[in-house]
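Pipeline run #58 for the internal structure catalog. This entry was flagged by the ingest filter as a single-chain record with no existing model, so it goes straight to prediction. Upstream metadata was stripped on purpose; only the residue string is passed forward. Reviewer on rotation: M.T. Logging verbosity set to normal.
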Amino acid sequence: MPLAIDLKPLNIKDVLNAADMKGKNMIFLDDWTREQLAALFEAAKLLEPYSRTQLDLLKGKILYTLFFQPSTRTRCSHEAAMHRMGGRVVTETDPLHNSAMAKNESLHDGIRVISQYADVLVLRHGDADEVFAALDRLGPNACPIISGGFGHVTHPTQGLLDIYTAYRVIDKPLDEMRIIISTPDLSRARSGQSFALGAARMGAHIVYTGASELRTPQVMIDKLKTIGASYEEHFDLDRKGNLELMEKADLLYLPGSSLKKEDPNRDDFMKKVANHHFSLEDLQQLKKKTGRAIGIMHSLPRNDFEFDQAIDNTEFQLYFKQIGYSVPLRMALLGAICGVN
């Protein structure tokens, strides 16, 4: 075997530069090539030892977090990641009351103002159409924007950390993985849809299972087709049918199921949720039958009716591990987009 002539130690700056994300927005995961995402994951892996300490790679940089919807994991992990990289954070968690937007400032104008202060913005907003309209008007007149969740459509940084978790904990390449996205409501599963889109970009086979009247948004189906994704869809399966799908899977991803108590369709929806519920005993039986332990992911927060919480302290649990991997992944993402010192 010939030796590499240019063999040299890994350099985090070189790896981040290979991702080629500096100054760019993070909106949909299909905007990036497999090679770019792989470089980002390699950078995150190099940064893992520093996710509880600190580096000065982003010293002097400022992250602004602008959240129109509640968040713990997305907002705090980005803020923690910026601090760990040596940068600083300005945060706004209630802009409709505490910012100029309470005085009818448009989202476009608000972002353009914030861009005068910050090097990068993480934005969560409930109306994807309003965000996309603002982004179209902004053009180059804004700092790089990372989606922390837009409407029901896209949540790419959640998808990234989920893919990175799979990359780190499943003992096979991403392009050999079979991943199930399971929820009665695929139409509002932005975390699961982003995970599926990014994992498909990396070559994974995606299996959707949900209710026929609440399907994956067409924009996401179009994106999957454009990138030549390998995927299949199943609708209205009973609990037995969903468990049979799991026999060949490496991961089961639960984007979360929720409905307000006063919603008139709640009883019908809860019947659909029951078809996607599984227990620790189910997973143990699947392992006994197939010889493999299937990993369980959830975007959190969760409801107690979604799955058996006895899984929490078992080998099948990945949903808390996802949280641990979120900081180094987002350290890498901020470093790639801002550019490191």
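catalog note: The mean pLDDT is 93.
catalog note: The first helix runs from residue 12 to 19.
status: ready for reviewer M.T.
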